[in-house]
């Protein structure tokens, strides 16, 4: 009976998996924050895309002037899409990596560098910082995911 | 030997994990449906983006008039991207949440509210329903994912 | 103690899970490759979107001419987004499928067809190949994911 009860908790009892769960949650929450920042800029810049979103701002033609693109809104949206393109592979490959029995210290190094690089990437994109800060923070996160993928393929390889 | 045979099935034997698997599959299928709706509108509205897609609709210049944007197609595409931005965090954080030993009833409540909210969001976006139906259904789904992330971080925290 | 040590490795010792890990890593790496191809085309076509990206290409107005869209860049970006829309459901549903105790041969068939279809889809999009090669390779991958979702829902169903 103990074995049965332990079933659902055993992965979360593993330290590498706990570290993965922590950092995966953090970077996914960081990605979710981009939705809120986009909404904030849409409201403060009065730049919307759907007619139903501006219905309360005026009647007929007077509301249509708010159906427009804004450079700050578009910048946040590009940052959000870049997060999707990079955080999705990290979360997917990172899960497999956490299950491939890496050393805890090595795993923490991967997770911490990736998370730090993506937070830096967001600041570099939104402030914006001069290049090459954005491209370098992107490349660091990308390399960490490649390194985890190498470990996964070395451990699991069954084609 | 029983232990060995049970390996692959034990997670799926756990009720919380089975609930997660069911709802994760449902929302991912709902997201996949957006591809088909986009394709349907592209064909019925004759609004394409790639030259090779309109080659069968006419020769040379006569086909180029179908390389255009259509407001219905763009609306479905925005709904699809919003799904990616919200369903990806749900699937990722939801998996970790399902492994953090929540009560089955609490887990079902989270999964059901999220799934209902995202289905409502799709109707609100595609019909479209007047605001604030879309923004509220988005906020409900977003809050459910935040609540699951809180449980994950409380259980797994290892930074 | 053996049980404890085995915790983190047991999933990766399962053959179906190892096959899943291999193919999921391969398609996620393929998706990541799209970022690099986009960057390659942005640099060679001199077509950028952020002012800070062209700062090194000239001063003031002379650099602004590189803030433009390029049809090759946009094509790669559409391929990348299509990967997100299709590879995310494969990775999510595929994980649940791998945990639903399918036959190894059946699982390998699903993973191999999906991976082959998405690689073909990328070539069909980027070369580009005449239709219906792109739409068919998309439909094959989509169908594989639907087939896996059916098995997941049949095994896990707990609504």
Automatic annotation (TrEMBL), chains A, B, C:
<comment type="function">
    <text>Conjugation of reduced glutathione to a wide number of exogenous and endogenous hydrophobic electrophiles.</text>
</comment>
<dbReference type="GO" id="GO:0005741">
    <property type="term" value="C:mitochondrial outer membrane"/>
</dbReference>
<dbReference type="Pfam" id="PF01124">
    <property type="entry name" value="MAPEG"/>
</dbReference>
<protein>
    <recommendedName>
        <fullName>Microsomal glutathione S-transferase 1</fullName>
        <ecNumber>2.5.1.18</ecNumber>
    </recommendedName>
</protein>
<dbReference type="GO" id="GO:0005789">
    <property type="term" value="C:endoplasmic reticulum membrane"/>
</dbReference>
<dbReference type="GO" id="GO:0004364">
    <property type="term" value="F:glutathione transferase activity"/>
</dbReference>
<keyword id="KW-0812">Transmembrane</keyword>
<comment type="subunit">
    <text>Homotrimer; The trimer binds only one molecule of glutathione.</text>
</comment>
<comment type="similarity">
    <text>Belongs to the MAPEG family.</text>
</comment>
<dbReference type="InterPro" id="IPR023352">
    <property type="entry name" value="MAPEG-like_dom_sf"/>
</dbReference>
<dbReference type="InterPro" id="IPR001129">
    <property type="entry name" value="Membr-assoc_MAPEG"/>
</dbReference>
<keyword id="KW-0256">Endoplasmic reticulum</keyword>
<keyword id="KW-0808">Transferase</keyword>
<keyword id="KW-0472">Membrane</keyword>
<keyword id="KW-0007">Acetylation</keyword>
<feature type="transmembrane region" description="Helical">
    <location>
        <begin position="20"/>
        <end position="41"/>
    </location>
</feature>
<keyword id="KW-1133">Transmembrane helix</keyword>
<keyword id="KW-1000">Mitochondrion outer membrane</keyword>
<dbReference type="InterPro" id="IPR040162">
    <property type="entry name" value="MGST1-like"/>
</dbReference>
<keyword id="KW-0496">Mitochondrion</keyword>
């Amino acid at each position: 009976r103990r074995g049965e009860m332990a079933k659902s908790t055993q992965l979360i009892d593993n330290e590498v998996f706990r570290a993965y769960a922590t950092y995966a949650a953090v970077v996914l929450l960081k990605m979710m924050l981009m939705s809120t920042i986009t909404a904030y800029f849409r409201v403060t810049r009065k730049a919307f895309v759907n007619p139903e979103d501006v219905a309360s701002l005026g009647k007929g033609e007077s509301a249509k002037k708010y159906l427009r693109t804004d450079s700050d809104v578009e910048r946040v949206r590009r940052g959000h899409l870049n997060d999707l393109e990079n955080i999705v592979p990290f979360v997917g490959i990172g899960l497999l990596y956490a299950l491939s029995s890496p050393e805890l210290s090595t795993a923490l190094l991967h997770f911490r560098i990736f998370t730090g690089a993506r937070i830096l990437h967001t600041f570099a994109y939104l402030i914006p910082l001069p290049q090459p800060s954005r491209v370098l923070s992107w490349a660091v996160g990308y390399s960490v995911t490649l390194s985890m993928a190498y470990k996964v393929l070395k451990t699991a390889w069954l084609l």
